[in-house]
Amino acid sequence: MKQVTAAVVVLAVVASTCQGLSMRHGRPAGGMLRDPPAERDMPTPPAQWFQQNLDHFDPQNHLTWKQRYFVNSTFYKPGGPVFLQIGGEGTANPVWVVVGQMLVQAQKHGALAVLLEHRYYGESRPTADLSTENLRYLSSEQALADLANFRDVYGHENDLAAAKWVTFGGSYPGSLSAWARTKYPHFFHAAVASSAPVWAELNFTQYLEVVQASLLKDGGPDCVDAVRAGAVAVNEMLETTTGRTQLKDIFNTCKPISTAQLEISSFSQAIAGLFMGVVQYNRDNVGFEGRSLVTITDVCNIMTNKSIDLPVNRLAAVRAFQLKTSSAPPTTCFDVSYADSITSLKNITYAAAEGGRQWFYQVCHEFGYLQSSQGNSTVQPFGNLFDVGTQVQQCMDVFDVDSEMLTDSIAWTNRNYGGLYVRGSRIVFPNGNVDPWHALSVLPTTLDLSKNILPVLIDGTAHCANMYPSRQDDMPSLVEARLAIANEVELYLDMDD
């Protein structure tokens, strides 16, 4: 094998935005997969660059661009497998090829660890900007073809063509991991697809249903009742001029709340967002860079604190607590403006987009995943002021994609990949039952699964918890799940095609 790594460099891992402070379509700033804990001075491999095709599906298009990747050969033994971590809807962090469960397994099996950044995110920029015209090359299909081309070319150049390649990914990259195995089984021997929402859904009402169930499980019925009372109070206050003025003062919104329905919906959804991010990442990656992430227990303690007189004031206290535990100044205003969010999503520069415009493009053209409060209000506590129609309007305002176009695209995605009806083999689907995204993934209750597909539902854990480094206080269910995943990967590596 050719020399594929250089001397590692020192990289300071920068903390992500506090969970719950910036959640759009289930994606916080930086992407849905949180970086694992790491020391600030932990050495990580340097960036390398792969000459990638711009359009894999047009043989006459010979344009290429440079895709970033990272390699750690510390544990590699000649003849060993290649473990490929798939980058997602944020900047790829090389710490993922230094710590985490993939590295534990790489050490055991003598594997080469590789991380490939997703096109259009981070420093992997196929086009000069993010205009809608340029974004036509952004899709899960193109991303999967990137993986296949990288595996083919890089494998041959580095004497790894005959190696068994196993893909790893969490959240959207978890779906890519499963799809890489089913779409390119001749290239990828097995896959671990953590917290993978493989079922595309327009009106993702299950998200808030899981939020309520998780609040109930960890915080009890008093917590859910208090959240519901707060949401009811907010929604009533939004109906009057006096109430909207009071809400501006209570929550320190960046702008006055207008009477426009889209602005009313945006504020209501922002209140729900205070809890959505907390549930999605509950207890995941606690202690990253010394931070103590907000948990369900934290917000429920605030919401049931009777020394805070009104439910709406308890909601504001949750917001204040999240600010306090983040790197944001305590005076940071609450940005809930629909108009401002559209302006932000229309910005076509990479620096300003931070991945948000790119992910929203994929939401509007492939997946939906629109988390609405539409439906039965007894199964979620946030009222019904942000229905799916107001969120489809965002797709229309940013990309001129209407409901019919989005519905058709989602149907195509599920037909193309099979949705929950996975036809493949050697795929592990780990999920945490606290994580709202598990509702769109392959579970032990999923019917008609192919042979050698293992769903693992982990009690009490949230988004991608199985991927992080082990801690002494890990739940027994998480410890057992990681062992089951590792055993399954070992079983797959012993298999030949």
Description:
The protein has 497 residues and is of the alpha/beta class. It is 39% helix and 12% strand. It has helices at residues 101-109, 140-157, 172-183, 206-219, 221-237, 241-251, 261-280, 296-303, 311-324, 338-345, 350-353, 356-367, 388-399, 403-417, 476-493, and strands at residues 9-10, 23-24, 27-28, 43-44, 48-53, 64-72, 82-86, 112-116, 165-170, 190-194, 201-203, 368-370, 427-432, 453-458. It has an eight-stranded mixed sheet, sandwiched between helices. The chain has a two-stranded antiparallel ribbon with strand order 1-4. A two-stranded antiparallel sheet has the order 2-3. β9 (165-170), α3 and β10 form a beta-alpha-beta unit. The longest helix has 20 residues, at 261-280. The protein is globular, with a radius of gyration of 22 Å. The two termini are 23 Å apart. Mean pLDDT is 91; it is low at 2-21.
Structure in a nutshell:
By secondary structure, the protein is of the alpha/beta class.
Explain the layout of strands and helices.
Blueprint: E1 9-10, E2 23-24, E3 27-28, E4 43-44, E5 48-53, E6 64-72, E7 82-86, H1 101-109, E8 112-116, H2 140-157, E9 165-170, H3 172-183, E10 190-194, E11 201-203, H4 206-219, H5 221-237, H6 241-251, H7 261-280, H8 296-303, H9 311-324, H10 338-345, H11 350-353, H12 356-367, E12 368-370, H13 388-399, H14 403-417, E13 427-432, E14 453-458, H15 476-493
Parallel strand pairs: 7-8, 7-9, 9-10, 10-13, 11-12, 13-14
Antiparallel strand pairs: 1-4, 2-3, 5-6, 6-8
